[in-house]
Amino acid sequence: MWEMGILSRMRHALPALLLVLPLGGALAAVPSPAEIVDHAPDSAWRTVPSEQLLLMKTNDGRRIVIELAPQFAPVHVANIVRLAQSRAWDGGAIMRVQDNYVVQWSVRDEKASLPTHFVAHPPAEYDRPLEGLTYRSLGYADPYAAQVGFADGWPVGGDGTSVWPAQCYGTIGVARNMPPDTGNGQELYVVNGEAPRQLDRNLAVVGRVLVGIEQLGALPRGTGPLGFYTDVLQNVGIQSVVLASDLPVSERPKVQTMRVESATFATYLATRAARSDPFFVHPAHGVALCNVPVPAREVL
Fold it and tell me: How far apart are CA 187 and CA 213, in angstroms?
């Protein structure tokens, strides 16, 4: 409940806060969410551990940095780490790009021998207990869940006892066949459009794209059923997928996400819900969970 109290106070105090928020050495009466992010103090950011980062490169030069979510799907994530360490995706391909839905890719050979300790049939890791996670409420109603907010910095739905990652733009999940299949991590997808929240609690969420989602979103759309490419020559080859901690220190990407428990994020959230920078004539005074993307930045 403390988050709700803070958010309520933030809404009432927002104009005063914005008047004193420094932007580039000057005062701006009404900064935008982007300006709030650009001028966030270092204390508002957390560095993603290298053992939770995947670096994906395609044959046509695209570079994607992915944060893994072991707190939500530990068995699936462990499978993905083992696949990366065995270089199973090197030579694989992106073979599906469905407009306003998902981009999907696969390992080089789904029939190849599986890595040691790989779990061929993981449990249905679609939700987990709220206990043990740091939680901040969004503060607005949601049509898909009784409660929504951010657990350990990830957008989630919940029922007061359990939480589940929301299928927002940039979310990475595990493709699967019909139940009881849960997928094993050899085929992954990323949401590339309007959040398909009907998928919440129906597939294992294993990560999110922190860098390069726009490069995946710019891929040519597949013309076959469900957006699959109809010709293998249309597939986008994967050069490599590696765990950042397996790279030399000098080659590891350093990516940070904003701490959702920070005062900066509270201001950012409130501003997303009530845009009052000069372009906006009528602030919405409301916001959907997936319209508050947790800010990320790469430190070069």
Answer: 17
Distance from C-alpha of 119 to C-alpha of 284, rounded to nearest angstrom: 46
Q: What is the pLDDT of residues 192-212, one digit of tens each?
A: 999 999 999 999 999 999 999
Which candidate, 176, 198, 179, 197, places its Cα nearest to that of 187?
Answer: 176
Tokens of 233: 């020559």
Mean pLDDT calculated for residue range 241-270 = 98
- Inter-residue contact 205 to 168 (CB < 8 Å): no
- Over residues 207-235, the mean pLDDT reads 97
Question: Would you give the end-to-end CA distance of the chain in angstroms?
Answer: 38
Burial class of 297 by CB neighbour count within 10 A (0 to 12, 13 to 18, 19+): middle
User: What tens digit of pLDDT does each residue of 37-51 get?
Assistant: 999 999 999 999 999
Global pTM value: 0.90
Percent of the chain exceeding pLDDT 70 equals 90
Give the Cα separation of 206 and 77 in Å (integer).
Answer: 6
Do the Cβ atoms of 150 and 156 come closer than 8 Å?
yes
Assess contact for 173 and 204: CB atoms under 8 A.
Answer: yes
Q: Where do the domains of the chain lie, and which CATH numbers do they carry?
A: 2-45+258-298 (no CATH), 47-255 (2.40.100.10)
Helix (H) or strand (E) holding 217: helix 213-217
